[in-house]
Amino acid sequence: MEARVEAYLDDDLPVEERVRFEQILAGDTGWEAEVFLARQIRDGLRALPELECPPAVTEAVLTRTRREVRDSWLERFHAWMQQQFSALWQPALAMTVVVLLVVSVSLIGRSTSPPPPDPAVAQALADVKMALGYVSQASRQTGKVVRNDVIAERVVGPVQNALNARQQPSDDTQR
Amino acid sequence: MWKRILPCALLLLALTSAAWAQDDITRDPGYIDLDQVEDWFDKEPTIIVNVKGALLDLVAEASRYEDPELADMLRKLKSVQVRGYDMRWADFDNIQERARTMVRRLEDQGWDTVVRVRDDDEDVNIHVRENDGAIAGMFVMVISPDDDETVFVSIVGEIDPEQIGRLGRKFDIDPLDDMSVDY
User: Fold this and answer.
1) Could you tell me which residues of chain A have a Cβ less than 8 Å from any Cβ in chain B?
2) Which residue has the higher pLDDT, A95 or B178?
3) Packing angle, helices A2-9 and A15-27, rounded to 10
4) Mutation test of the interface with chain B: which of A129, A146, A150, choosing the one with the most B Cβ atoms within 10 A?
5) ipTM of the complex model
6) A-chain residues within 8 Å CB-CB of B135?
7) Which of A39-48, A108-117, B54-63 has the least mean pLDDT?
């Protein structure tokens, strides 16, 4: 019944219920006084002056609201990125790592284990090395002969003779 | 009719071109045909080496891992020939005389004699042929009956003698090591 008083004053009761409620009020002075009191309280509250919210409070509320909205947006963006990363970038990264591994292994394999040459090519390589060996040896041997024949005979010999010739007179004078 | 003849003609042209390119080495100023020394001896050669053309390219490629400097040098060469013979003392004078005749002919053709060592028991000649300011061929004769080793080496191509000497030192040949040299 008390809940109906407030609804009656706010004119929220359906027509049939409102009619029945007014019939009750007409026969019961207690409830009539209750409705009168409730109406005075309502009118008194409505007559109070409208208060403004202090600017500091308004600013604080707005700041907090903006932060919550921004944090919410960042969280959603972060979640979206994670989803995209796991969906797109992770397989791409894995594929790149695999390709790099394959290339590295193939390069290392090439540099460390050359393919075995054909037997005919290997024999030809040995023949060419032998030919180069002959040329080098012939050059060196002829160089030794020239050094021996020319330097020993025409340089070392005369110098030795000259030294001997100078030493001989000094030996004679010592005697 | 032409559809059948044309591929055959093209194939024939390609083959003759390849054969021409193969034989083209004989026209190189640094080339010496070592088969001409076979008449000097009554025995078959104990060493025959003929490495040229595509085989020489393959040899250069095969040596790339083992010795890059050797591979670089071989890429500049066109032909490497070696002939080795066992020689009796009785033939020494005859072979020496033939070699001198050949050297004179080479000098007439523009070859330079770099080294000539004539001893009682050995005869060593090194000749080079210059072409357009670069060495285009090298010819080495080692006639030494004492060691039963008479060797002729012909190398055709862009030659750096210093590089050949340095690289060849790695591939020493035993018989020449024993060549008698009087100090």
Assistant:
1) 114, 117-118, 120-122, 124-125, 127-146, 148, 152
2) A95
3) 110
4) A129
5) 0.76
6) none
7) A108-117
